[in-house]
């Protein structure tokens, strides 16, 4: 069995498909939860007992400002329930086919994380099965030490089985625009200066040597566009939230979705981020990213998720590599990832998800 990263293989001794927290408790201790298997380092794999959480995918009644969901539900399934009410979680992953439990166990970062923090910042309470098999509710007011331990805890302190998510009103339609930037520092300055609900940045290979930087902002339809905006596109909010689906379908058809994905994502202090980003990309050729690889740059805030150990005023820098045929082999990509992680740690950065 492999995960999305495609570099680690493990055959579980036993697969359990729990339908309740009691079923999870019966499999403890030592069971490893797996949602959609989108990890890139083998952390959703085990040679022991594997918990296939997808059978626990119920989404409860949508209430004002909240919805309770089982941990095996995907963010797509959450939106299917909340969007008819004009509501959505404040932070969504770019790819919706990830489970709630999986991203809360990692932290969960999206385009609105500069306003709302991580997905783990926006959960109201949790139900957790601890390693000793106890089914335990927790929240900021009840068992706060457990609440803090399991959010971005990678399953080390228990398996999340249910979460109550905060919901906010979303616009019916949005407008998306791009702004070219001359470098990483200018891109980060734009992300701070532009007041938009959803912002992120990318670095893309130029026709010649080097990389070009692009800032993207998404605002409610009818909002004034930021200065310098180009390629404005209006679309329904559901289509925006699910914008990756056509790309994923294309990558599946091309075989790229099943290639190895040696990803490395770090959280950098903003004061040092531009230097790390530009130095790293100066050493990176397009083949080192792959045909479908992506370079992400994103400012964010982290409120109260101790396990992230994020620096003050953090910037996400992600090299989402794909080992495409004829490109850089996975072992060289992994070596470059280690070099980036060392460079990040030298300036006070940390890996994401937490090691």
UniProtKB/TrEMBL annotation:
Going by the UniProt record, its keywords in alphabetical order are: FAD, Flavoprotein, Oxidoreductase
Please indicate which superkingdom the organism of origin belongs to. Bacteria
The residue ranges of the FAD-binding PCMH-type domain are 8-170
UniProt-listed Gene3D superfamilies: 3.30.465.10, FAD-linked oxidases, C-terminal domain, Uridine Diphospho-n-acetylenolpyruvylglucosamine Reductase, domain 2
> InterPro entries given for it?
Cytok_DH_C_sf, FAD-bd_PCMH, FAD-bd_PCMH-like_sf, FAD-bd_PCMH_sub1, FAD-bd_PCMH_sub2, FAD-linked_Oxase-like_C, FAD-linked_Oxidoreductases_BP, Oxid_FAD_bind_N
Q: Could you state a single Gene Ontology molecular function term?
A: oxidoreductase activity
Homology family: Belongs to the oxygen-dependent FAD-linked oxidoreductase family.
Q: What is this protein called?
A: FAD-binding PCMH-type domain-containing protein
């Amino acid at each position: 069995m492999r995960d999305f990263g495609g570099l680690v293989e493990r055959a579980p001794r036993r697969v359990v498909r729990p339908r309740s927290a009691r079923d999870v408790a019966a499999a403890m201790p030592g069971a490893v939860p797996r949602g959609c298997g989108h990890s890139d380092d083998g952390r959703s794999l085990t040679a022991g007992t594997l918990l296939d959480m997808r059978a626990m995918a119920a989404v409860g009644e949508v209430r004002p400002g909240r919805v309770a969901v089982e941990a095996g539900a995907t963010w797509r399934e959450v939106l299917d329930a909340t969007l008819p009410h004009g509501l959505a979680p404040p932070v969504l992953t770019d790819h919706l086919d990830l489970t709630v439990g999986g991203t809360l166990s990692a932290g969960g970062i999206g385009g609105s994380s500069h306003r709302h923090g991580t997905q783990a910042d926006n959960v109201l309470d949790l139900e957790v099965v601890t390693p000793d098999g106890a089914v335990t509710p927790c929240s900021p007011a009840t068992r706060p030490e457990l609440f803090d331990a399991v959010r971005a805890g990678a399953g080390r302190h228990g398996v999340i089985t249910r979460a109550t998510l905060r919901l906010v009103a979303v616009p019916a339609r949005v407008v998306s625009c791009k702004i070219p930037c001359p470098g990483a520092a200018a891109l980060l300055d734009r992300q701070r200066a532009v007041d938009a609900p959803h912002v992120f940045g990318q670095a893309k290979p130029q026709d010649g040597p080097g990389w070009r930087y692009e800032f993207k902002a998404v605002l409610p339809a009818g909002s004034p566009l930021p200065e310098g905006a180009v390629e404005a596109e209006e679309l329904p909010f559901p289509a925006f939230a699910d914008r990756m689906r056509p790309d994923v379908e294309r990558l599946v058809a091309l075989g790229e979705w099943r290639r190895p994905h040696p990803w490395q994502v770090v959280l950098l202090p903003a004061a040092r981020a531009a230097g790390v980003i530009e130095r790293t990309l100066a050493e990176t050729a397009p083949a080192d990213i792959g045909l479908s690889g992506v370079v992400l740059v994103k400012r964010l805030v982290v409120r109260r998720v101790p396990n992230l150990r994020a620096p003050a005023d953090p910037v996400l820098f992600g090299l989402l590599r794909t080992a495409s045929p004829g490109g850089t082999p996975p072992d060289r990509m992994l070596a470059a990832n280690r070099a980036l992680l060392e460079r990040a740690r030298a300036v006070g950065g940390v890996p994401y998800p937490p090691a």
